[in-house]
Amino acid sequence: MSVIYGLIPGMILLGLVSVLVFFWAVRNGQYEDMEGPAHRILDDDDMNGSTKQPPEER
C-alpha cells in the first residue's frame, strides 16, 4: 500500500512532463510537415533539379 504513495506522484509528474514536451514540439514546428518525408522517399533525385557533376581530375 505504501508503494502507491510513490507511484501516484510519479505518474502525475510523468504525465505533466509528457504534456509539456508535446506542447514544446507543437510550438517549435515538429508537426508541421507530416506527409513530406513519406513522399520525399518516392521522388527521384534527378527530378529535384540538382545536377551534381563529378569533381574534375587534376
UniProtKB/TrEMBL annotation:
Which InterPro entries does this chain map to? Cyt_oxidase_maturation_cbb3
Locate the transmembrane regions by residue number.
6-26
In what ranges is there compositional bias, type Polar residues?
48-58
The record's keywords, sorted A to Z, are: Membrane, Transmembrane, Transmembrane helix
Q: Name one Pfam family in it.
A: FixS
Annotated region Disordered: the residues are 37-58
Q: What is this protein called?
A: Cbb3-type cytochrome oxidase assembly protein CcoS
Q: State the organism named in the record.
A: Mariprofundus erugo
- Tell me the name of the encoding gene: ccoS
